[in-house]
Amino acid sequence: MQIQINTSNGIENKEALERWADTEMRQTLARFAAEVTRVEIHLSDENHTASGGADKRCAMEARLAGHQPLAVSHHAGGLDEAFRGAAEKLKRALDSTLGRLYGHRHRDSIRKDGDAVVE
C-alpha cells in the first residue's frame, strides 16, 4: 500500500508530520492492506492567517484494486484531530464497502435444512 501525504503552505514541521501520518495510516488500515493500493492524504490549514474554529482539514482518498476510489474529509481545530477523524471515516467506509463486496460470500445461510418453506 502506497501512502502519499500532501500538505498546504500553512502547515509547519512537514517532515515529522508526514512520518507520523504514514505510520498512523498503516496501522489504521493494516487489515485492508491487500485491497487498498494507494492512499492520498491532504492536510491543510484553510484559515492559516487567523486562529480558532475548525479550520484544519484532512481529506483522504483510498484507491481499491478493481474498484472506485473512496474519499472522506474531516474538519477540526487541530491537524491531529482532523487526521484521526478522517482516518476513522475512511476505515468505516472501507469496512462498509468491502464488507458488502465480500461479506456475503463467506457466510452460512440463516436457514436450516428443515426451515425451508414449501407452498
Overall description:
β1, α1 (14-28) and β2 form a beta-alpha-beta unit. It is elongated, with a radius of gyration of 19 Å. The N and C termini lie far apart (52 Å). Helix content is 33%, strand content 27%. The protein contains two helices and four strands. It is an alpha+beta fold and 119 residues long. The mean pLDDT is 83.
Question: Which features does this protein show?
Answer:
2 helices; four-stranded mixed β-sheet; 119 residues; alpha+beta
Task: Give a nutshell description of this structure.
The protein is α+β, with helices and mostly antiparallel strands. It is 33% helix and 27% strand. It is elongated, with a radius of gyration of 19 Å.
List the topology elements:
Layout: E1 2-7, H1 14-28, E2 36-45, E3 56-64, E4 70-76, H2 79-102
Parallel strand pairs: 1-2
Antiparallel strand pairs: 2-3, 3-4
Beta-strand level of the residues, as a percent range? 25-35%
Helix content: 25-40%
Report how far the terminal alpha carbons are from each other.
52 Å
Would you identify the regions where 5 or more consecutive residues have pLDDT less than 50? none
Q: Rg, please?
A: 19 Å
Mean pLDDT, to the nearest integer, reads: 83
N-to-C series of helices and strands = EHEEEH
* Record field, number of beta strands: 4
